Amino acid sequence: MQFMLLFSRQGKLRLQKWYVPLSDKERKKISRDLVQTILARKPKMCSFLEWRDLKIVYKRYASLYFCCAVEDQDNELITLEIIHRYVELLDKYFGSVCELDIIFNFEKAYFILDEFLLGGEAQETSKKNVLKAIEQADLLQEVHSVLLQFSAL
Amino acid sequence: MSDVVEKTLTALPSLLSLDSHPGSAKLSSTSKLGNLIRGITELTSKHEEEKLIQHELLAIKEQVSSPNTTMRQMKELMVRSIYCEMLGYEASFSYIHAIKLAQQGTVLEKRVGYLAVSLFLNESHELLLLLVNTVLKDLQSTNLIEVCMALTVVSQMFPKDMIPAILPLVEEKLNHPKEIIRRKAVLALYKFYLIAPNQVQHIHNKFRKALCDKDPGVMTASLHIYLQMIQENPDAYKDLTPSFVTILKQVVGGKLPMDFNYHTVPAPWLQIQLLRILALLGKNDQSTSEVMYEVLDESLRRAEMNHNITYGLKALTYVVQQDPKLALQHQMTIIECLDHPDLIIKRETLELLFRITNAQNVTVIVEKMLEFLCISEDDHTTIDLVGKVAELAEKYAPDNEWFIETMNTVFSLGGDMMQPDIPNSFLKLLSEGFDSVEEDRKLKLFAVNSYVPLLRGEPGKLPQRFLQVISWVLGEYSHLREDLEPAEVLSLLAKLLDMKNSSSETKSWVLMAMTKLCKGGTDASVTQEVSETYSSSLDTVLRQRAHELQYLSQDPELRARVLPRGANPETLEVDSSLSFLDRFVSEALAAGAAPYKPPHQRQEELDQSKALSLEPYGLSLPISMSSCSITDRQSPTLLSMSSGLSGDSADLSHKGGSSALKLDGVKRVWGREGYLAQREPVEEAAQVEVPSPIQSPGRQGEGDSLHSQTPTQTPTPEPEQEKQQLASSLFVGLASQSSVSLMGKSEPTPQRFRRKAKGQGPGSSFNASEQISSSLISPPSAVDNLLCNNLLDSNNASELAEQTSQLSQRLTTANGTCHTEAELTEPDTKGCNPALRRDNCVVAADPGPHDDPGRLTEVCLDSYLPAELSGLSHSEIAPLCANQSLNLSACHVQKEDSLILVVFIINSSESAIQQMLLQVDSEELEVSCLCDSPAGEMTSHSVAVGQYSLTVKRPAVHVEVVGTVSYQLPAGTSQSLQFSYKVPLTSFIRPFVVSTEEYGTMWLSFSHDTKQNLTLINDNQEPLTATLNALKKKLQLHVVEVIGMEGIVACRLLQDLPCLMHCRVNAGWLAVWLRSPVPDLPDCLIYHCQRALQSL
């Protein structure tokens, strides 16, 4: 996978993950172009499009668009399922996730993504294992905060 | 107040708002980030947003640089910076602080620090170097989460040069007790493999361990590496096929833990990964594919229609290349997919059908493809599909009418986007014809018949390429139709010239066609008018064509000589050295004309004259070229036209846009008969003997009825029945009748448009093997037949030869080819790595019914090398071919002044053979027998050795030796065994030691040259030296001198045929200019230079 973008119906970027080295300018141009292209498509249209030399796979969940770019030899359908599995993971973690959860806790969304996809490849496809890894780190955070609170008082 | 208390107080608000729920969603809405986000949503204009963010960034900037900011605050600041960057505002001042946070923070602060780094920087960012120490420290941490974070960031980005610093630590993690660490370590190594494959080469064995890991996550992660490595070199991993098959079997069989299931499908990502790997391993490899059939079938069966159609189809597409019968079992699924509303699925289905096409189902499949073409709007798909239709039509066309009709559709739909080789090969096919003269004539006539109404209609709507094809065909063959007056054709063609959208390329094709047709007399008026219009055209090519038209139409005798109608293309000899012009040139030179320089040299000198530097060899020439080339080019007498020598004429035809239509083997455009440059190059092959024209009825209506004959068109009330009929028409010919009831008849249909065999001499092993195999398969099973049909059309001669040899071995006949592109193995290293060397040999991979000659006897054959050769370096001894009685192997030995081919003949039978005779010959090489060729009687299990000295006659990228062994069995039956052996040209290259002065003199006297940019090797030393040294080592070139950014290099083929090379570093490339007195040598050498540099 080359990159993943999450953006709202208004075209606001909510999350971006780049797995190929690109300059800031290129990133901005690509996300601008793509967001425009995808928002212009009608709801009944195909979830795949060929764009430059890439295949774009996108899906809309409520007000949020999830969009992935994969190489020509990659399979579009399985990429679509990657998006869906990511949404499932977010849903499980936040408890019926909504756009606001992702806006306010985008760093969490990134952590989950990093446990699921690494360097553009599926790292762990078991839902249980991904969440376990995140929760362990979170747990540590809480222990740490409690200690901090304690020492502060 | 003390610092400590202050820090604690500032930290308090966020601490107190902590929630115990792990997905503490809404809590941070009270934080500063929350305020920022809310602030933004309340804004109404982009301008306000900009102001707010700039303000925010200023505040962040101030805080991050304050020494009092705690790491905890820093973490919050980083999150806000990330948010601002996401909105598209630059916060580069915070990058360094993100690195600091990753370095100095506690675990969770680190986590944000690493995240910020991975989002802010990309792997070429220089700040990333500062992260190396942090990563190093965290990899050694006892805290699992720190190790995880370090591995996560490493798998996303890491400076390539610093990999060695952390590699041992990452490698060590492969044995870590926690699976999450092992998994991340594998992915980190995958990343390293992608950016620096050489660095991880030594750990391949550990990858195997990861593949067998008990944790499915680790195993899955290792597949990424394997997919990549297998893509690059499938042969090295064939032994893993059973492992992949076993894993897939377990996955499909539901052996993985439940939480790997995805909506009831067991680990679909893993399945796809495995299928892709298997596809690569099984490609072109029957025996490996056989291992997979069962599990592939099972995967396909279990895959649910809606989820997995596409990937099932893809896998099936690969499988059918090996065994088309498998497609039969899924035919109804495939039919469903064909009607699928999703265009992507439809396209994949057509791809699959393309693979199973044969002579019986071609009409239906091509029709489906054309249907799709009509609705497809995507250029890429159109180009691809048009190419496939053209390929199928040429291969399997059931009759002339269908072929021409289909090609017409291809040309109209494909337009000007299609690959230029489609019209090319169509015209070539038409002009070369087939074995039957009558069939030839019919095909040409039908083409003419179908084009005339097109031109009478609305030719303006036809693509330019199609118009070019039409004009060529009409010019060449319209005389076959007797009722068609040349005058009418001429006026039709003249109409094309007047069309606004005709390109000048098309116009020059049209003028060319008119030149062929004009006869003077009644046609003169049209011709006259046209040639007058265009003889003042601004386009030089058109103007030239117009002049030709004018002169040739007035001089029938000259026209008959220049454009002979009945000439045989094969008698045409091209004098590429243009020696017949020598006298003219020397006279011109004596009269003070400047020597000729090819255009690119002129250009270069022009460029250089602007700069300071000149040719490295001091002798530079004046640039007064114009007198010789431009004026002559317009001169009316054909023979003196563009006597500016070789490069000019090639250049002209290029400008005419017809460069795409060059035919193989046509090198120059001057012939012994006179000047040919102004004709389209294709015509050279087009002078086919044509019998007197016979009238044929117009056939325009027949195309329609043709399509309606296909079963799909037959009206059937029931849709299901329709599908079944479609199925039977699609899958016909794939298997014997007994296996599937839906099958139609499966009689083998002979290939229609088989190219006429050329050059029957021993030099053409390609044809020889083709003929042999086609005669062998006369009573074939359906499968074999299909295999052969496919193979015979293969344009790839080597593939054909390889497959043919497999086929013929199976049929216990003898015939083989071997490509030994392997580098020479030194005697001392020989045998150290037999597995690897074997992989280079094509034939040996195929276990025949007999003892594999290579595997068993190779070691012993070494000892049969003639004593005087045994100390020299030789290529591996490669098996050539075998039959019941003989095994043939060969190798070549490099000597300083010659190249020796050694052929080993092993009598593997139990009886002696008589009157054995070995003959070796080559088109490109001079073959001379060194000692007496082995002949006469050979006792059982004995070995005879033949030695031949090879020198290059005519350079080619690969030169080939073909040979025959004929012998008599004790029973008295005589047999023969044919083989071919490829030698890379590099084996003939020897260093050529000359001084710079000698080099300079030679440089100016050599006439054949070529130029190309090569990639530079960028290791730590100076790139020019590094690249030249690599070339010197690989190709045995002699580096004459290196001056600054330029270097001169010389080599020769054995003792003669020198080639000089001038290299200059230019804008990151190595601009190479080769010159030689030998045609083609510069081009061949540049090819090998490219390959040598690629293989580094």
Automatic annotation (TrEMBL), chain A:
<dbReference type="InterPro" id="IPR000804">
    <property type="entry name" value="Clathrin_sm-chain_CS"/>
</dbReference>
<dbReference type="GO" id="GO:0035615">
    <property type="term" value="F:clathrin adaptor activity"/>
</dbReference>
<keyword id="KW-0968">Cytoplasmic vesicle</keyword>
<protein>
    <recommendedName>
        <fullName>AP complex subunit sigma</fullName>
    </recommendedName>
</protein>
<dbReference type="Pfam" id="PF01217">
    <property type="entry name" value="Clat_adaptor_s"/>
</dbReference>
<comment type="similarity">
    <text>Belongs to the adaptor complexes small subunit family.</text>
</comment>
<dbReference type="GO" id="GO:0006886">
    <property type="term" value="P:intracellular protein transport"/>
</dbReference>
<keyword id="KW-0168">Coated pit</keyword>
<keyword id="KW-0333">Golgi apparatus</keyword>
<dbReference type="InterPro" id="IPR044733">
    <property type="entry name" value="AP1_sigma"/>
</dbReference>
<comment type="function">
    <text>Subunit of clathrin-associated adaptor protein complex 1 that plays a role in protein sorting in the late-Golgi/trans-Golgi network (TGN) and/or endosomes. The AP complexes mediate both the recruitment of clathrin to membranes and the recognition of sorting signals within the cytosolic tails of transmembrane cargo molecules.</text>
</comment>
<dbReference type="GO" id="GO:0030121">
    <property type="term" value="C:AP-1 adaptor complex"/>
</dbReference>
<dbReference type="InterPro" id="IPR011012">
    <property type="entry name" value="Longin-like_dom_sf"/>
</dbReference>
<keyword id="KW-0653">Protein transport</keyword>
<keyword id="KW-0472">Membrane</keyword>
<dbReference type="InterPro" id="IPR022775">
    <property type="entry name" value="AP_mu_sigma_su"/>
</dbReference>
<feature type="domain" description="AP complex mu/sigma subunit">
    <location>
        <begin position="1"/>
        <end position="140"/>
    </location>
</feature>
<keyword id="KW-0813">Transport</keyword>
<dbReference type="GO" id="GO:0005905">
    <property type="term" value="C:clathrin-coated pit"/>
</dbReference>
<comment type="subunit">
    <text>Adaptor protein complex 1 (AP-1) is a heterotetramer composed of two large adaptins (gamma-type subunit AP1G1 and beta-type subunit AP1B1), a medium adaptin (mu-type subunit AP1M1 or AP1M2) and a small adaptin (sigma-type subunit AP1S1 or AP1S2 or AP1S3). Binds to MUC1.</text>
</comment>
<dbReference type="InterPro" id="IPR016635">
    <property type="entry name" value="AP_complex_ssu"/>
</dbReference>
TrEMBL record, chain B:
<feature type="region of interest" description="Disordered">
    <location>
        <begin position="739"/>
        <end position="773"/>
    </location>
</feature>
<dbReference type="GO" id="GO:0030124">
    <property type="term" value="C:AP-4 adaptor complex"/>
</dbReference>
<feature type="region of interest" description="Disordered">
    <location>
        <begin position="681"/>
        <end position="727"/>
    </location>
</feature>
<dbReference type="GO" id="GO:0006886">
    <property type="term" value="P:intracellular protein transport"/>
</dbReference>
<keyword id="KW-0472">Membrane</keyword>
<comment type="subunit">
    <text>Adaptor protein complex 4 (AP-4) is a heterotetramer composed of two large adaptins, a medium adaptin and a small adaptin.</text>
</comment>
<dbReference type="InterPro" id="IPR050840">
    <property type="entry name" value="Adaptor_Complx_Large_Subunit"/>
</dbReference>
<feature type="compositionally biased region" description="Polar residues">
    <location>
        <begin position="763"/>
        <end position="773"/>
    </location>
</feature>
<dbReference type="GO" id="GO:0012505">
    <property type="term" value="C:endomembrane system"/>
</dbReference>
<comment type="function">
    <text>Subunit of novel type of clathrin- or non-clathrin-associated protein coat involved in targeting proteins from the trans-Golgi network (TGN) to the endosomal-lysosomal system.</text>
</comment>
<dbReference type="Pfam" id="PF14807">
    <property type="entry name" value="AP4E_app_platf"/>
</dbReference>
<dbReference type="InterPro" id="IPR002553">
    <property type="entry name" value="Clathrin/coatomer_adapt-like_N"/>
</dbReference>
<dbReference type="GO" id="GO:0016192">
    <property type="term" value="P:vesicle-mediated transport"/>
</dbReference>
<protein>
    <recommendedName>
        <fullName>AP-4 complex subunit epsilon</fullName>
    </recommendedName>
</protein>
<keyword id="KW-0333">Golgi apparatus</keyword>
<dbReference type="InterPro" id="IPR017109">
    <property type="entry name" value="AP4_complex_esu"/>
</dbReference>
<keyword id="KW-0653">Protein transport</keyword>
<feature type="domain" description="AP-4 complex subunit epsilon-1 C-terminal">
    <location>
        <begin position="990"/>
        <end position="1094"/>
    </location>
</feature>
<comment type="similarity">
    <text>Belongs to the adaptor complexes large subunit family.</text>
</comment>
<dbReference type="Pfam" id="PF01602">
    <property type="entry name" value="Adaptin_N"/>
</dbReference>
<keyword id="KW-0813">Transport</keyword>
<dbReference type="InterPro" id="IPR011989">
    <property type="entry name" value="ARM-like"/>
</dbReference>
